[in-house]
Each structure stands twice: as structure tokens, then as C-alpha cells.
What we know:
The chain is mostly helical. Among the domains are: about 1-35; about 90-150 and about 185-335, no CATH class. The chain is built from twelve helices and no strands. The chain has helices spanning about 5-35, 35-60, 65-115, 120-135, 140-145, 150-170, 170-180, 185-225, 230-240, 245-260, 265-290, 300-335. Helix 9 (about 230-240) packs antiparallel against helix 10. The radius of gyration is 25 Å and the shape is globular.
Amino acid sequence: MPAREVSSVFVSRVLVTIGLVVLAVLTVFFLSKLIDVILLIFASVLLAVAITGVRSLIRRLTPLSEGWSLAATYLLLAALIGGAVAVIWPQLAEQLPKFIDKVPQAIDKLRDFVDKLPWLKEAIEGAEDDASDHGLDIPDHLLGVFSTTIGALASISLIALIALYLTLSPKVYVKNLLILIPRAKRKRADALMQAQTKSLRYWLLGRLASMLFVGVFAWIGLMVLGVPMAFTLGLIAGVATFIPYIGPILGAIPALMVALVQGPLVVLYVAILYFLVETAESSLIYPLATKKAVHIAPAYTVIIQLAGGVVAGIPGVILATPLAVIGAVAIQMLYVEDVLGEEVEILGDR
């Protein structure tokens, strides 16, 4: 081959390589800017998966058509939400102001406790100094798009609206996605999306059972112990359980702070209560919630949640585990099965 042609081929390859690198950098840049939008869309998909799961169950148990099954699903959801608000709101409206009033007292008690332990005080001050030296503004970073009540309400409204459109015609959106896949791979891509949807539904079912169990038994236990605002604290514990492993810890903190006002012994009792409730939930309730419960190793889950927190703050932590579920299914089917040729038990397909 003449030297001129060799040089031309080399230059073209270099230009193609540079173009691919630039494209990859631009893709990462724009994705980083749109991370909040991507998470909001995924939250909408997650809600749509839950709603269509209920619709499928209603259609299987009744003679209703697909459209009427969806209408029945929304009526059922409206009834459940209305009933929950009617039951929960009066107690929440009564107890939440009391909880807010007790937070400063709990913080003062905690400061007094820290002052009595010089080694703990030095450790906390050292951590605060390290954070300020590295320019970390932890509260601002963690709050993200949900930093204000208005922002949270706007995000929830958008999630509900997008989920509504997705549930009205899910097959249209799936079809539009499959068009982007090469024809020879569409059947496998469709199977992948169905498997991911199934695994997410089982994961959501397990989470719902866990949330109900933790919320109810934390409420009952706190009432028995005589801890104020037991209902509000139990509700917080139940909602926080949606986030595996990290959530229960976050859900226990408000109860421990309120118990601190009552005295150190009450703190100990509350800690034991939450430990027993969470142990029962993780070892008994969650595995029994469904025979096809989706499990991801605790170490992997916590690592993914921490990574989600670094990338996107609180929304990243909340959605890290369901994202890990669909990612794990994709790896199992597209890499372990298709590339390696190994047989593997797909999450949620037991």
C-alpha cells in the first residue's frame, strides 16, 4: 500500500477515534445535566409499573376489559388514597406540630450528651472541619430537586402525570422503544423489558409489605413504651422502609431523637424496638411477602445507594435499588445468558 494511502487511513482512524471520544464526553456531560429529569422519568415508570400490575390482577380476576380494568384500578387507588387521608390526616395534623416542637429539645439533649463525652465531641468537630476544608455543602447537595416543599410537590405531580399517560397506552411506548432496536434483536429486547417489569412488580410488592409491617408495629411499640407522637414516628419509619437497609436507619432517627427527650433509658428501649421490628421484617415478612421476592445482596444495595446519593442526592438514594433491579436483570439476560451462555435464575422469575 502506498505511503500516501497508509497516511490517509491513519488520519481517518484518528479522526474517527477523536469523534467517538468527543461524542462520549458530550453524552456523559448532557446526561449529568439531565440526571434529575432521568430520575423523575424513572420514578414515573416505576409508578406506572405498579398501576399496570394492579390492572393486570383486576383483569385476571374479573371479566372486565383492559380499559375498564384500568378505570377500576384508578377508582380503587382513589378510594384507598381518600381513605388513608381521612384516617391519617387528623392524627398527623395533631402530632406533627408537636414533633417539630420537640426537635430543638432533642438537639439540646444530644449536645449535652456529646459534651459529656470529649472523644465523641472531638470526632464530630473533626468531621465538620474536614467537610468544610473540602468545601462540602452536604445539606444543599443531598436535597437536590426536592429541596423545597414546592419542588417536591411539583415533582410528585409530574411523576403522577407522566405515569398516567404511560398507563393509558403502555404498548405504544414499548413499540416505539422496540423500533430503535435492530429487527433481529427486538424479540429479545421485548423479553428483557417484560422480565424487568415483572421483577420491579415483585420488588414493589415486597417493599409495600415491609412498609406496612414496620409502620404498624413501630407505631404499636412506641405507644406501649409511652413515646409521644407514636403514630407520626411509625408513619415515618414505614415510609423510610421503602429504601432498603439505609431507610430503616433513617426512619429510626426521629424516634430516637424524641425518646432522647424522655431519657436515656427510653432511647435504649426504642433502639431495641426498632432493631426487633427491622429484624422481623428482613428475615420473616419480606421473604414471605411473595414467593418470588426480589433480593439483591445487602453490600451491593448499600454501595449502589451511596453511589446514587453522590450522583443525585436523596432522589438517587430512593431510586437506587429499583434501578439496580432492572440493571441486574439486564446483566443476567444480555451478558450472563447471551454472551457467556450460562444458565441463571432471573430476578423475580422463581
